[in-house]
Design goal:
single chain, alpha+beta, 2 domains, 24 strands, 23% helix, globular, TldD/PmbA_N, hydrolase
Length: 477
C-alpha cells in the first residue's frame, strides 16, 4: 500500500509542468527530432464468476511513465514505474542516446483542450464492490435460469478501469485526460448428450457503471445462454459458395479484421497491407464507406486524445468505395508528410504507441435489412461472428460463425452450427451488393505487436452475393 500511495502523490506532482519540461529537455540533450512523455495512473477492478461462485475479485493501481525520442527513422523508448524526479530523468537519459548531436531547447508547454467530452454518470471507483458482485451474480443466475438442465457452465467477467493520463512533448503540447471504461461479458456452455455448444455476449463502453442500466446484466446473461441452448438443436452447416447476409447485430468483426488492420499506416508503410499505394483508387463497392471514429459516445474504443496527445477525430478511410486515408500515429504521419489523425495508441506506459483502430465501422446504407434477407433467395444468415484469422498482406481471412441460419426462399430458416466464412477482405468489399440502414456494434480487445487496446466495430446488414462457406454438410437438407 505504501507503494500505491507514493504513486498517487507523484502523479499529482506531475501536474506541475516544470518536471515534464526538465525531462523532455534531458531526453533531447543529445539531439533528436521529437520527444514525448506519457504518464499513466490507472485503477483497475476485475470480478470473475464461475460455477455459480465468485472465484476472483481483484483491484489495483498501476502507475508509470514512458519516454520516447524519435531521431530520423529511429525510435528509443524507455519506461519506469519510479515517478520521482530521479527515476524520470534516468529514463530520459537512456533514450537521449538516440540523438546524434547536441540540442538545447527552450520549451514552453500549452495545454490542449478536448474537442469531445464523455459524460460519466456513475464512476466505477465510486461504486462498491458489493454492487459490482450483485451485477455479476445477476448475470450468472439469468444465464442458468434459461435452462437449468442444459446449461452446464456459466462464466461471467466484469471489469472497469479509470485511467488518468498526462502527455507532454517537445512541440509544446500538454494534455491531461481521464478515461473511464466498464464492461461485462458472459459465456455459457450448454450440453445435451454428446453435443456441447457455447454462447457469448458482452457489453462495454467509455462510460461508468451506468452501462449496466442500459445493458442489463440479466439480459446479457440470458442472451448468452439462449444462444448456447439453441445451438444444441442446430443442424450441420452446408458447405460451398453461396449468398451470405451479415446481419447488423453480427458486429463488425469482418471490417475490423479483414479491412481495418490493413488500413493502419505502419503495416502499409512496411508493405504488409493489401491497401498499400492505393489511395484514391477504388477498393470497395460504391455503396461501401468505412469510418473510424474515436469521438463516438458510449463506445468502447472512444477517447478524447490518443496516446500521443493528438485530439481524436472521425476519419473516413474508404468513401463510396474509394480509399481516402489510413490510420496514422505521429511517426507514420511524419514519414508521409501528413498530419497525424489521432490513432496512436498503446496498452500502457510500458508500450510505445503504434497506429491502431478505435471504433471502426461500415457506414449504414439505405436498404431495408428485412428486404436484404428476402433478396438473398437462399444462403446463410450470420447473426453472430466468432473468432478468426486474417493475413493483412493478402487480405485473406477465415472466420467462425457463432450464430447462423439458413436462408430459404428469402425467409430465415433453421439454425446451423459449424459454419466458417473464407474469403479475401478487399474482394468481399468489392462485391457487397446491398447495405442496410441499421448498424450493430460489438466490443473487444484488439491485439497487435503484443499490445491489447479496447475497440469496438460495427456494420449494417450486408448482402454478399457469393462467399465460401465451410461446413460439415454438403448441400441443404
Amino acid at each position: 500500500m505504501g507503494k500505491v500511495k507514493k504513486h498517487n502523490q507523484v502523479v499529482l506532482k506531475l501536474v506541475e509542468q516544470a518536471l515534464l519540461k526538465e525531462v523532455l529537455q534531458e531526453a533531447l540533450k543529445n539531439g533528436g527530432d521529437f520527444a514525448d512523455i506519457f504518464v499513466e495512473h490507472k485503477k483497475i477492478t476485475g470480478i470473475g464468476c464461475e460455477g455459480g461462485k465468485i472465484e476472483r475479485i481483484h483491484s489495483g493501481i498501476e502507475a508509470g511513465a514512458g519516454i520516447r525520442v524519435v531521431s530520423g527513422d529511429s525510435t528509443a523508448y524507455a519506461y519506469t514505474n519510479d515517478l520521482g524526479r530521479d527515476g524520470l530523468l534516468e529514463a530520459a537519459r537512456i533514450v537521449s542516446h538516440a540523438g546524434g548531436g547536441k540540442n538545447d531547447i527552450n520549451l514552453e508547454l500549452r495545454r490542449l483542450q478536448p474537442q469531445v467530452l464523455f459524460a460519466i454518470r456513475q464512476r466505477p471507483d465510486a461504486v462498491t464492490t458489493e454492487q459490482k458482485v450483485r451485477a455479476v451474480k445477476a448475470a450468472d443466475e439469468a444465464a442458468r435460469s434459461v435452462d437449468r438442465e442444459k446449461i452446464k457452465q456459466v462464466m461471467v467477467g466484469y471489469g472497469d478501469v479509470v485511467q488518468k493520463i498526462i502527455i507532454a512533448n517537445s512541440e509544446g503540447d500538454y494534455v491531461e485526460d481521464e478515461r473511464v471504461r466498464t464492461r461485462l461479458m458472459v459465456q455459457a456452455v450448454a450440453a445435451e448428450g454428446e453435443v456441447i455448444q457455447t454462447g457469448y455476449e458482452a457489453a462495454g463502453s467509455h462510460s461508468g457503471f451506468e452501462l449496466l442500466e442500459r445493458d442489463k446484466p440479466e439480459e446479457i446473461g440470458a442472451a448468452a445462454a439462449r444462444r448456447a441452448v439453441r445451438m444444441l438443436a442446430a443442424r450441420p452447416a452446408p458447405a460451398g459458395r453461396m449468398p451470405v447476409v451479415l446481419a447488423g447485430e453480427a458486429g463488425g468483426t469482418m471490417v475490423h479484421e479483414a479491412c481495418g488492420h490493413g488500413l493502419e499506416a505502419d503495416l502499409v508503410q512496411k508493405g504488409l497491407s493489401v491497401y498499400a499505394g492505393k489511395k484514391g483508387q477504388q477498393v470497395a463497392a460504391e455503396n461501401v464507406t468505412v469510418i473510424d471514429d474515436a469521438t463516438m459516445q458510449d463506445r468502447y474504443g472512444s477517447y478524447s486524445f490518443d496516446d500521443e496527445g493528438v485530439p481524436a477525430r472521425k476519419v473516413v478511410l474508404i468513401e463510396n468505395g474509394i480509399l481516402k486515408d489510413y490510420l496514422y500515429d505521429r511517426v507514420t504521419a511524419k514519414k508521409e508528410g501528413v498530419e497525424p489523425n489521432g490513432h496512436g495508441r498503446r496498452e500502457s506506459y510500458q508500450h510505445k504507441p503504434i497506429p491502431r483502430m478505435a471504433n471502426t465501422y461500415i457506414a449504414p446504407g439505405r436498404d431495408d435489412p428485412r428486404e436484404i434477407i428476402r433478396s438473398a433467395g437462399s444462403g446463410l444468415l450470420v447473426k453472430k461472428m466468432g473468432g478468426g484469422q486474417v493475413n493483412t498482406t493478402t487480405g485473406d481471412f477465415v472466420f467462425d460463425v457463432a450464430e447462423g441460419y439458413l436462408i430459404r426462399d428469402g425467409q430465415v430458416g433453421p439454425m446451423v452450427r459449424g459454419a466458417t466464412l473464407t474469403g479475401n477482405g478487399p474482394e468481399v468489399l468489392r462485391v457487397v451488393e446491398k447495405v442496410g440502414s441499421d448498424l450493430g456494434f460489438t466490443i473487444g480487445t484488439c491485439g497487435k505487436d503484443g499490445q491489447g487496446v479496447p475497440v469496438s466495430d460495427a456494420q449494417p446488414t450486408l448482402l454478399i452475393r457469393a462467399l465460401t462457406v465451410g461446413g460439415t454438410a454438403h448441400g441443404e437438407e
